[in-house]
Amino acid sequence: MSPHVTVLLPVHNGGRFLREAIESILEQSFEQYELLVVDDCSTDNSAAIVETFSDRRIRLIRSESRLKLSGVLNRGLGQCTGKYVARMDA
Asked: Can you tell me the distance from the alpha carbon of 22 to that of 28, in angstroms, rounded to the nearest whole number?
């Protein structure tokens, strides 16, 4: 069964706030969602932070080259499986 909502979270070197952002999504009472984190070539620990979560609703996509915000959002939109899309920034 596909999720009702995809929460699209682009990140570039947002490790300082990323854990708190992810936890805020996971603490919601609504549970029919996927959290799609698109890492835009971060050079900090952003991807490692995402990988510490074992929630099956979280997916991490890493960009091969720097896409900047509009490119990352377009890439993420192409990977969303939810009927609706919500945005969250790191």
From this structure: 11
Q: d(Cα 51, Cα 48) in Å, to the nearest integer? A: 5
Give pTM, 2 decimals. Answer: 0.95
> Does residue 1 have a pLDDT over 90?
no
Asked whether the beta carbons of 50 and 22 are under 8 A apart, the reply is yes
- Edge-first strand order for the sheet with 84-87 is 58-62, 33-39, 5-11, 84-87
pLDDT digits (tens, 9 = 90+) for 19-73: 999 999 999 999 999 999 999 999 999 999 999 999 999 999 999 999 999 999 9
Helix, strand, coil percent values for the chain (each to nearest 5): 35, 25, 40
Please say whether the beta carbons of 6 and 87 come within 8 A.
no
Q: How far apart (Å, rounded) are the C-alpha atoms in residues 36 and 81?
A: 9
